[in-house]
Amino acid sequence: MTTSIEFDGLGAKNTLTIYEGGETGTFDKSIALVSAYAKLLSFYDEHSLLTQINQQAGIAPVHIPVRPIFNLIARAVAWSKRGLGYNALIGPLVGLWHIGFDDASVPSSDRIKERLALTDPDKVILDSEAQTVFLSEPGMSLDLGGIAKGFIIDEMGKLWQQRGVTGGLIDLAGNQLLFGNSEQGVPLWQVPITDPREPGNPPIATLTTGPKAVVTTGIYFRHFDRRGHVYHHLLDPQTGSPVDSDMASITVVADSAEKADVLSSVGFYAGIPAGFDVIEDEAAEAIFITKATQITQTSGLRETLMPTMGH
Predict the structure, then answer these.
(1) How far apart are the first and last CA of the chain?
(2) To which H or E segment does residue 184 belong?
(3) Are 97 and 107 in contact (CB under 8 A)?
(4) Can you spell out the DSSP letters for 221-278?
(5) Angle at which helices 67-81 and 148-162 cross, to 10°
(6) C-alpha gyration radius of the chain
(7) 151 and 34 Cβ atoms separated by less than 8 Å
(8) % the chain with pLDDT above 90
(9) Cα 309 from Cα 300, distance rounded (Å)
């Protein structure tokens, strides 16, 4: 029997659905897991562990008591050093633009330049033995927004496995894990791909896939308008401003939600062909959609993506 629950967390609406299996209390444990990690990883919670790290920038290393969180930060910094378009040190710019909040505004080029100087991942000092993180310059700040949801989804997937779930859907703010069997009782899923021009429209395409993580990044998620110009939340780590390209959205399909989360940032920033190549090199798949609704998919999806009539 299908059971489903909606809850608020990670600054968004989330939905958990179990089609098969699962012990009593699985939803409660799942929501508690999200809440616990949010208290550690939130960029906006003044009491979070991440905020402690950022407040101690240029002052002192911060001990990370939970080893998986230290390892997550280490992976985020390692991805950032690759210069592919994902940068976990973009916190100073996220705070400056504040897109998604009522006080969002367009900063001056001088202020953007000042904050850009604080986003160098090489200035993060990680001590694996002591399990500490040190941002070596005052004003630096970590923002794990492009990796944390994926990490939490993967952790919830482990929980579901332990609790005997054999089919279900984890959806945290649109980032999904297709877990085991679909509603039809088979390990094959139909995933609607959102039309980035108008998310309320019918899907622009439908993907058929096995149990995988599916993460979409798009300009329609968070944005604000000023003098006829739309500023979306996907910041370019090179310029400090929203990515300026013909990309509207990218959907990444991968074995791990964490990898899909990061690669969605990389793919959106780098576009085609650079982002396309990185995603294939990482043994993942992706659907790129431009503002003109041109759809391009990686090689592994050529037989499994069905565009809606008219696209």
Answers:
(1) 36
(2) none
(3) yes
(4) SSEEEETTEEEES-B-TTTSSB--SSEEEEEEEES-HHHHHHHHHHHHHH-TTHHHHH
(5) 140
(6) 19
(7) no
(8) 70
(9) 22
Strands (E), the chain: 3-9, 12-21, 62-63, 124-127, 132-135, 165-172, 175-180, 189-193, 205-209, 213-218, 223-226, 229-232, 247-254, 285-290, 295-297, 305-307
The torsion defined by the Cα of 296, 301, 305 and 310, in degrees rounded to 10, comes to: 20
**Is-contact 175 95, C-beta < 8 A?**
no
Give the residue-averaged pLDDT of 24-34. Answer: 97
Q: What is the pLDDT of residues 241-282, one digit of tens each?
A: 676 778 889 999 999 999 999 999 999 888 889 999 999 999
Q: Tokens 């779930």 correspond to what residue?
A: 165
Closest CA to 119 of 38, 235, 224: 235
Looking at this protein, which amino acid is placed at residue 16? L
Bridge partner residues of 133 (DSSP): 62, 126
Q: Comparing 156-160, 172-176, 237-241, 258-262, which segment has the lowest mean pLDDT?
A: 237-241
CA distance 240 to 234: 10
Helix, strand or coil, per DSSP, at residue 158? helix
226: which strand partners? 229
How far is C-alpha 15 from the chain's CA centre? 16
Which residue reads 């791990």 in tokens?
A: 256
Q: Are 193 and 239 in contact (CB under 8 A)?
A: no
